[in-house]
Amino acid sequence: MSSKILIVDDEKSVTEFLKMELEECYKNFKVICRNSGYEALSIIMEGGIDLLLTDIAMPDMDGYELYSRTKEYDENLPIIMMTGFGYDPEHIVVKSRKDGLQDVVFKPFDIDKLNALIKKRLAGE
């Protein structure tokens, strides 16, 4: 069975790298990339996405807004956030975790750990 993953980051180099890595590791993944939170939300609302991997800092819609709007649409969709920022008690990560976010990966991230996390979430763990 094929899994459809949506990667969202305003940096095209990040989305292209992740798409290449995921498709190389998992031939059954269909990876869709968007560089805007609003574009991503539109795709999520079309349905069929199995996992959302999103950056936190984006110019049009931050990761928290994308997270909360996605959860309003589909509360069961696994979401992993990526960030290059460290801990800050006012940060979007803290706010998102309070609202139920389970997974955050810090850039630069270990691609093997990210792959394992994606696989775990797609398995419903």
Pairing-aware structural class of the strands and helices?
alpha/beta
Mean pLDDT: 84
Return the CATH architecture: 3-Layer(aba) Sandwich
CATH class identity: Alpha Beta
Strand order of the largest sheet: 2-1-3-4-5
**Uncertain stretches:** none
- What is the CATH topology assignment? Rossmann fold
Tell me the fraction of residues in β-strands, as a range: 15-25%
Give the tally of structural domains.
Answer: 1
How much helix, percentage-wise, in residues?
Answer: 40-55%
Radius of gyration: 13 Å
CATH superfamily: Response regulator
Largest sheet: 5 strands, parallel
Total DSSP E strands:
5
The total count of helices amounts to 5
Distance between the termini: 17 Å
Element string (H = helix, E = strand): EHEHEHEHEH
